[in-house]
Amino acid sequence: MPTPWQTRLxxxxxxxxxxxxGLWCKFFPGRADQRAIVEGLPLLPGSAxxxxxxTIGLAELALGAWVLNGxxxxxxxxxxxxxxxxxxxxxxxxxxxxxxEPGRLVVQDIAFLALVWTLPAARRDRTRxxxxxx
Length: 134
Description:
Blueprint: H1 4-24, H2 32-39, H3 49-69, H4 73-95, H5 102-116, H6 118-127
Helix pairs in contact: 1-3, 1-6, 4-5
């Protein structure tokens, strides 16, 4: 069973990743490859690119805060999984030519999601009562 310190460290690493993606990659300064992928989305007018990037960035920052909060960890893991899979599927379908190493992206996301899914189990174990032998 992970210690509370290990659980907090895991949550902090996950939140840091969402913070980096939300703040650095979408806002300050923003990554050109991510912008190009969003620009390549079909039926998305050019005027909607910046507002969409800002919305995605804010959602990623909120997700990081949710992970740190620790409430409903299983639901948070489900939401993170859906977003990672959705974002990357969209990126690979509509902007694969703008992703330098698609295989690396997929492998990194598998590792990230494995880390994401350790939190619900760790937090559940901490809330279970310890059985006492009679």
